[in-house]
Amino acid sequence: MSDNSRPDPIDHSRRKFLRTSGTTAAVGVISAYLPAQASSVVGEGIEPEASYPPIDGAVPITLRINGKDHKLNIDPRTTLLDCIRETVALTGTKKGCDHGQCGACTVHVNGKRVLSCLNLALMHDGHEITTIEGLGTPNALHPMQAAFLECDGYQCGYCTAGQIMSAVALLNEPCGPDDGAVKELMSGNICRCGAYANIVEAIQRVRKRA
Amino acid sequence: MHTFEFIRPPDPAAAIAAAAQSKTAQQGADVRFMGGGTTLIDLMKLNVETPNRVLDINRLPFDKIEPMADGGLKIGATVRNSDLAYHAEVQRNYSVLSQALLQGASAQIRNMATVGGNLLQRTRCVYFRDTAMPCNKREPGSGCPAITGHNRTLAILGASDHCIATNPSDMCVAMAALEATVHIQGPKGTRSVAFGDFHLLPGNTPQRETVLEPGDLITHVTLPPPVSGSKQLYLKLRDRASYEFALASTAVVLTIAGGNIRSARIALGGVGTKPWRSPEAEAALTGKPANDATFRQAGEAAMQNAKAQTENRFKIELAKRCLTHALRTAAAS
Fold first, then answer.
1. pLDDT at A2 over 70
2. CB B241 within 8 A of CB B289
3. pTM for this entry
4. What is the four-CA torsion angle of B76, B82, B83, B86, rounded to 10 degrees?
5. Residue B311 pLDDT exceeds 70
6. For A40-72, how does the pLDDT look when each residue is reduced to its tens digit (9 = 90+)?
7. Taking CA atoms, which of A193, B64, B213, B264 is between 20 and 30 Å from B77?
8. Alpha-carbon distance A135 to A123, whole Å?
9. If we measure between CA atoms, which residue out of B122, B119, B123 comes closest to residue B222?
10. Does B267 touch chain A (CB under 8 A)?
11. Do B37 and A118 touch (CB under 8 A)?
């Protein structure tokens, strides 16, 4: 982080920032949290530093996330959200309320948007799961990701992955043409910063281009 | 969350046999069927529900919406709320159900929540959801702090000295007005329950919310043939415009001929301890001229037995106006 040029905003994950910026206290907190999530990995798709001891009562499952199969051993209590974030280490999906009230954890299952915090991972073997990491890449953004950048559809960014996953699913749902219809179908995604007007603008921009 | 064994029964018989091991099918059941999980996982995280075994019924053959020979509709227990709400036949002939579903929860939750699960949706009473507090529904005999505490959103109809928790479902209000039937397969065979008999009043056993016994599996719901020429409306009033539970709601199914109301089926949500059919409002409407005076009388009739809690007197007037406005709007449609 020594150069003064403005970093590409999409090249900086929070995790990478914590690892490289010397905030050892914060890293310590996260590392301590990981094993407590009670999941062990027998396959691939995990960051190398996270290796967990085996856990009692773990159940084998193959989860297909973003087109890639992950063979996992998980505690039955593990929500789809915790499995995606802590076991498979795809941390783009965010945990907000963890009770189905905020939408930050929205992912797609078989093309439909759902709340990953109110699903058990074990319910989803054989399903196609898509997370924000599966939508686009930094060099080839999904049109909705690009529109959120263009329209400044966020402030702090914590709800953004959920907002974008919801917005992409909305494109394939019955939705009237006006802003009111978009707001109604996006009401399950709370933005504490209040970027709603820009979020609606981004969604409408993509719908008009389609 | 407490530990549990996750089981995916291969067929309904295996699911029923496994669930029949539970001591109860009501609050605190040690074996639970899991549909969408939107209520159950939430309550398991809060330790309000602590099953030892969870039976995933999502891959059982209950995911179809099918027309019936008598002109009615058969709706499988694992049909998702969104699939039901957007189904062409539901939108055409049972629009009050589609409207109710689309005014409930959020798009994500509607993609998850099932018909069977919604029949068993649990109250949002804050004392029920907080294991640090007494609650007669969660721990029979422990008391009801809601009666003297935070009860702004709680029931004004059907409450008892033991429980004043509101049933939060929108779908159930529409199904009550449509006179749906709940179909159950259990250890002793199959049976059908009229919608109005499925949910129980709290009385002195608020932990019992439905007629379900251990091993009973809701397989489907049927709707009778559509009421020909009916005007249907679901109106939901709440603290914010979307993604919020009802303070008062109503499902209206009306037929009007020559300016007079031929038939009326009225149910109320957000105000009762169960989805609330109102024979009083129906009697005040049937055979009367379809005008504002009649609609206001129906609102009064619906609330004639209402009893306010300390914080929710406003709901009596709100529910009256909700019904009156819904009737006026439906009649003009």
1. no
2. no
3. 0.92
4. 130
5. yes
6. 444 444 444 445 667 788 999 999 999 999 999
7. B264
8. 23
9. B119
10. no
11. yes
The CATH 1.10.150.120 portion of chain A extends over: 143-209
Q: How confident is the model at residue A210 (pLDDT cuts 50, 70, 90)?
A: confident
Q: How confident is the model at residue B157 (pLDDT cuts 50, 70, 90)?
A: very high
CB B133, CB B114: distance < 8 Å: no
Question: How far apart are the C-alpha atoms of B42 and B64, rounded to whole Å?
Answer: 26
Find all residues with CB under 8 Å of B144, minimum gap 6, and list them: B127, B134, B135, B136, B161, B162, B163, B164
Q: Which strands sit side by side in the sheet containing B217-223, from one edge to the other?
A: B65-67, B73-76, B217-223, B181-186, B189-194
- Answer for the pair A160, A153: CB distance below 8 angstroms, yes or no: yes
pLDDT at res. A37: 40
Q: In terms of DSSP H, where are the helices of chain A?
A: 14-20, 24-36, 80-82, 143-151, 160-170, 179-185, 196-209
Alpha helices by DSSP H, listed for B46-87, are 81-85
Report CA B287 to chain centroid distance, whole Å: 28
Interface test with A, best of B41, B44, B124 (most A CBs within 10 A): B41
Range list for CATH 3.10.20.30 in chain A: 38-133
The residues, any chain, with a CB within 8 Å of residue A33's CB and separated by 6 or more, are A86
pLDDT at A111 over 80: yes
pLDDT of residue A19: 56
Residues paired with A128 in a beta bridge: A64
Q: Which residues contact B222 (CB under 8 A, 6 or more apart)?
A: B68, B72, B73, B74, B75, B180, B181, B183, B192
Q: What is the pLDDT of residues A5-42, one digit of tens each?
A: 444 545 555 555 555 554 444 443 343 334 334 444 44
Question: What domains sit in chain B, N to C, each tagged with a CATH number?
Answer: 231-331 (3.30.390.50)
Convert the pLDDT of each residue in B128-140 to its tens digit. Answer: 999 999 999 999 9
Mean pLDDT computed over B102-121? 98
Residue A137 is given by DSSP the state B
**Cα–Cα nearest to A114, from A128, A126, A125:** A128
Which residue has tokens 């719908």? A207
Residues of chain A contacting B242 with CB distance shorter than 8 Å? 183-184, 187
CA distance B103 to chain A (A): 9
Query: Of B104, B242, B76, B225, which Cα lies nearest the Cα of B173?
Result: B104
Asked: is A143-209 a CATH 3.40.50.620 domain? The reply is no
Q: What's the rounded Cα separation, in Å, for the pair B286 and B298?
A: 10
Residues of A whose CB is below 8 A from B42: 99-100, 118
> Is B239 an 8 Å CB contact of chain A?
no
Note the pLDDT of residue A15.
57
Pick the CATH number of A38-133 from 3.40.630.30, 3.40.50.450, 3.10.20.30, 3.40.30.10: 3.10.20.30
Interface contact flag, B4 A77, Cβ < 8 Å: yes
